[in-house]
Design brief:
The protein has 245 residues and is mainly alpha-helical. The chain has six helices and no strands. Helix 3 packs antiparallel against helix 6, helix 4 packs antiparallel against helix 5 and helix 5 packs antiparallel against helix 6. The longest helix is centred in the C-terminal third of the chain and has 39 residues.
């Protein structure tokens, strides 16, 4: 029996030697060692801290205090736009009402003698009022730019070049409107002067040759419109001088 047991054990050993065990066969998942997991968690925590520091830096840059120069530009745009807006608006409303009275005289066409000679002046007055509406819009836009300059995020603030471009466009609009108004005013003043010189101070049967109410209304409308465009030009020039210096 003993001899059989020894022979059985020897055969078993030879069979095991034919199929050697693989390395780490007892741990098929090949899990990382505890110190490896500790290093990995340390690197992950370091990355998170670096990312948090970068985020805080970006937020601090986004919420950076507004410089004195930007605050001054915002104040100039706010006051310049506000003054130009209200002056142009008030004078524009007065001119519009005056032109509407003048246009009402043209309803009867050629049958109304008072309407003769003032058609071109009234047309220029209407065109200048359209330009005045655009100028009022640009004055309102100046105030809007002043509000945007107060944003804490520099990325949302208007650029200096864009602001100067907007002011220049508003200045050009007021200049064009003022030129049109001056042309209309010169036309109606020439008509009034011609009527005054052609008619002696005697009884005149043809009333269309006399200075009438439509002539005076057109002169008043053109005068108010010239003053409105002039206020827009002054405000735009002052803003350009303040921002570009």
């Amino acid at each position: 029996m003993r001899i059989r047991s020894i022979s059985f054990h020897s055969q078993t050993l030879r069979w095991i030697e034919k199929f050697p065990a693989k390395k780490n066969q007892h741990c098929p998942l090949n899990l990382p060692k505890p110190h490896a997991r500790t290093n990995e968690y340390g690197r992950l925590g370091k990355d998170l801290r670096e990312q948090a520091s970068v985020t805080n830096k970006d937020q601090s840059e986004m919420l950076a205090p507004i410089s004195a120069r930007v605050q001054q530009a915002s104040a100039d745009l706010r006051w310049g736009g506000r003054i130009g807006f209200w002056v142009q608006l008030v004078l524009g409303v007065i001119s519009t009402v005056t032109v509407l009275f003048s246009v009402s005289i043209f309803i009867n066409g050629d049958d109304n003698p008072a309407a003769k000679g003032a058609e071109f002046a009234v047309f220029c007055a209407i065109c200048s009022l359209v330009a005045l509406v655009v100028g009022i819009y640009f004055s309102f836009r100046y105030m809007r730019i002043a509000q945007l300059l107060q944003e804490p995020n520099p990325a949302t603030r208007p650029k200096r070049a864009d602001t100067i471009s907007v002011i220049r466009i508003g200045l050009i609009v007021n200049l064009v409107g003022m030129v049109i108004t001056i042309v209309g005013a010169e036309a109606i003043v020439g008509i009034v002067l011609a009527k005054s010189l052609a008619n002696p101070p005697t009884i005149v049967e043809d009333t269309s040759k006399l200075v009438n109410s439509i002539d005076l209304l057109v002169i008043q409308a053109n005068t108010n419109t010239i003053a409105a465009h002039f206020s827009g030009i002054v405000s735009s020039l002052l803003l350009l001088n303040r921002i570009t210096r």
